[in-house]
Design brief:
102 residues, mainly alpha, Brnchd-chn_aa_trnsp_AzlD, transmembrane helix
Length: 102
């Protein structure tokens, strides 16, 4: 069985290169931002990015089923009154329950 385990150096190099590029982008972004003076528009865009990504991920799912749309509406209602972690957990519970009921 161990004879079938073979280290392919090309695959190893690809995985190592991918890890290096991933690490460089993870470290390079904060390093670059610390050395560049951002204008008000760029700062506003960077601050809005997490919310825009979340909306881009949630909207297609929310529009795919009525139960998901109701769960999204529920999260929108409670998100202003509770911490974000609680709102996300409530959304997960709402999706599970509403998918079972509808």
């Amino acid at each position: 069985m161990l004879e079938s385990l073979h280290l392919d150096w090309n695959v190893f190099a690809i995985v190592l290169g991918g890890a290096l590029v991933t690490w460089m982008t993870r470290i390079g972004g904060p390093w670059l931002i610390a050395r560049v003076q951002l204008g008000p528009a760029a700062s506003a865009a960077l601050e809005a990015t997490p919310g825009a990504v979340l909306v881009a991920l949630v909207t297609p799912a929310a529009l795919s089923r009525p139960s998901d749309a109701l769960a999204a509406a529920f999260v929108c209602l409670i998100a202003r009154r509770v911490p974000m972690v609680v709102a996300v957990a409530g959304g997960v519970v709402a999706v599970v329950l509403l998918r079972r009921l509808l």
